[in-house]
Amino acid sequence: MPNDDWKCSKPRLLTKIENEGARVLLNHWSEIYERENRLPQRTDIDPISFIKFTPYIWIIKRVSGEEYIYRLAGDHIIENFGTGIAGTYIHDFFSGEMLDTMITFLNKITDENTVALHHGYRYLPTCDYPVQYERLSLPLANHDGKVKYIIGYTFFHGIPDMAEAILGKNSAFTHEEYYTI
Question: Which pTM was predicted?
């Protein structure tokens, strides 16, 4: 299943990832993908391989169509959102334009089997200023080969002066890149 697109995309993607934890997760996922000749399943993922980065890890499950639920959220995610989000549907956590953006992003990964890398700035419930973030999102297949889960790594850090200047009145600014697998 690893094709020429992925062979070209992976090195390019690795050069754009800023956080070591995201690189470690991508390499773990990619090793399974390349060795098994199929998309990794949730049960293939070994958290021991990235144990020191688990605070930044999250898993979302596609329940149906445009309905997604957080299955796991590490401590870094919980601290920055101000609450535990495991077991929460995205439509209970996000609304309006942000919900639409999230559904579009999640659907692209699950429907098109793509890997996503986002860099940007956004407001979080725990801060009165925007924070910078990096988010890597990787598809996980069900036993039938369809993408049912997404595992990701998100790192937030606050830099109020720069973020305010970039965001202005917007609630979020994101640079998105998607990679064919």
Answer: 0.88
